[in-house]
Amino acid sequence: MDKKFEFDPATDLNLTFKQRIRSVLRERSVFSLGYILVWWMVTRAIMRFYFRFSIVGREHLPATLPFVLVGNHSSHLDVVSLLFAVHTKQRDRVFPLAAEDHFFKRTLSAAFTAYAINALPVSRQGGGIAAMQALRERMLKHKCGFVLFPEGTRSRTGEMSAFKSGVGILVAGTDIPVIPCYLKGAFQAFPASAKFPRPKKVTLIIGEPVSFAHLENNKEGCATLAAELEQRVRALALF
Amino acid sequence: MNKRIWDIEGALNSPIVMNMSYTVAALLVIAPVIIFVLAKSGKINAKKTDELYKRTFSWFFLCLFIFAPILSGPAPTILAVTALSYLCFNEFARATGLFREKSISIVVAIGIACFSFAALDHWYNFFNALAILATGLIAAISTLSDRPSGYIQRVALGCFGLIFFGYAIGHLGYMANDSNYRPIILLVFIATELNDIFAYITGHLFGKRKMAPVTSPNKTLEGAIGALILTTLLVTWLGGYVFAGTEIDRWYMLMPLGLLIGSLGQLGDLMMSSIKRDLGVKDIGQSIPGHGGVLDRFDSLILVAPAVFHYVGYYVGFGLDQPIRIISGGG
């Protein structure tokens, strides 16, 4: 009887609290299910009644992980809107990628971003290639999903800007489906210049999944991928 | 107010409880002084000094979390033990990967809550029935996902977690149903934790032969025997005050209790070392600076709590003069 069980400990097992909230290896424990349930009930209610939030094309979301949701970025509502569409069962394994320099500097903001949004930090100042590759490994191994906004920052005018190619490192050369999403009305509801969100109607349009197995995971491949994704998201805006 | 919820007078009126509290407080003050002297005289190096300071500092908070609920009353004691069960299970589940099995984890969590209720309610039959009912539920619910691959492993891990962290540790909480619960629970805590410290000290002073080099290379035979002797002496002496006037207030009845705590405490420690070795992790968590996880600190209690409960229960009994099924009624 020397055959062993195969154990797969939590990836963030030996991190202290402060390391854990800033770690890309973070995994939610079972007991977070309780507060997450309450937090999402409140968030869903606000989205539904204050922003009259609706989703078009939810059937395009794959039933199984891994997948990557990609959208236009114009407000702080975006992350919550995209996560809203994800099935409750999958939500604790879907991680938005958030700017390290903005959200993960102070402990309080990092704790909120980690515990409420379940976001993982990514660097915006280059040098993030290795970090993105690590995220890709994690996605393949643990079957998790990511939500990201390839524009890199919120639009200040409401117009979409060009997609950065970093998203390519995550998915180029794999079968992982990428789902383009377009969020309508979020800029009018809560632009970067506003202090408080306005009760405007917000609609999420989810497009058909697309995978990029045919592209090489290199500089050109990632650039092509980013450009194609951008086209697909722009096309959804005409809906 | 209801004496089950808040009964600080009960603690203040008990000389043995107060003496135990003062002694532990005094130890917490003396420990840094001893470490300071040892460091100054060059007996321990800077790294070890740092670690010992960190541990002592953590002990200060641990003692606060242990003593405050026990002195406050039975219900706070039971709830604190429940919190301990949850923390231990959470660390175990994260270390083994069981936490990704949501349905099993939730059944264990509900099971722990039910153990807590049975203790609060003072309903011994339910407390015992739960062990097998919840075990059965884990095995049953795990079939529903139609995933036979890995079935034995996840059910075994779930049962292990439920029995050791819910049921075994739950015995500590159940003891709070006795009118004399404070000195008994404090005795268990103090003896088990000092047992670890005795093993650490005697091992450092006289340790030569390794006890289980593959499982835990730092443990020595001399440390184990030294701790066993010291703990047995401590329990025999302290037990005389704790169990004064009862059937086991005799040295030949208290000595087996001391041997039980001393040996099972160290076996509990070895049990957790084996688990960590099997998993390939050094510490099971990082929640207590200098100690590792909650489970690294309280692993010795897992085997001790039920053994003490039944040893004392057999000769003296727990809460025989207290009302039963306080919440659910129908006693």
Q: What are the SSEs and their pairings?
A:
The complex is a heterodimer of chains A (239) and B (331).
Chain A: H1 17-21, H2 32-50, E1 54-56, E2 68-71, H3 77-85, H4 88-91, E3 94-99, H5 100-103, H6 107-117, E4 120-122, H7 129-142, E5 145-148, H8 166-171, E6 178-184, H9 186-189, E7 203-206, H10 219-237
Parallel strand pairs in A: 1-7, 2-5, 2-6, 3-4, 3-5
Antiparallel strand pairs in A: 6-7
Chain B: H1 8-12, H2 15-40, H3 46-72, H4 74-96, H5 102-121, H6 124-141, H7 151-174, H8 181-206, E1 210-212, E2 216-220, H9 221-242, H10 251-279, H11 294-298, H12 301-315
Antiparallel strand pairs in B: 1-2
Helix pairs in contact in B: 2-3, 2-8, 3-4, 3-8, 4-5, 4-7, 5-6, 5-7, 6-7, 7-12, 8-9, 8-10, 9-10, 10-12
Describe the protein.
The complex is a heterodimer of chains A (239) and B (331). With 239 residues, chain A is α/β, with parallel strands linked by helices. Chain A has a single domain (27-236), classed as Glycerol-3-phosphate (1)-acyltransferase (3-Layer(aba) Sandwich). Helix content of chain A is 40%, strand content 13%. Chain A is built from 10 helices and 7 strands. Chain A has a 7-stranded mixed sheet, sandwiched between helices. The longest helix of chain A is centred in the N-terminal third of the chain and has 19 residues, at 32-50. Chain A is globular and about 60 Å long. The termini of chain A are far apart. Chain B is mainly α and 331 residues long. Chain B folds into 3 domains: 1-72, no CATH class; 75-177; 179-331, no CATH class. Helices cover 73% and strands 2% of the residues of chain B. A two-stranded antiparallel sheet of chain B has the order 1-2. In chain B, a hairpin with a 3-residue loop joins strand 1 (210-212) and strand 2 (216-220). The two termini of chain B are 23 Å apart. The mean pLDDT of chain B is 93. Classes of the chains: A alpha/beta (239), B mainly alpha (331). Chain A binds chain B through residues 4-10, 13-16, 27, 29-31, 33, and chain B through 86, 90, 93-97, 99-100, 102, 105-106, 109, 153, 278-286.
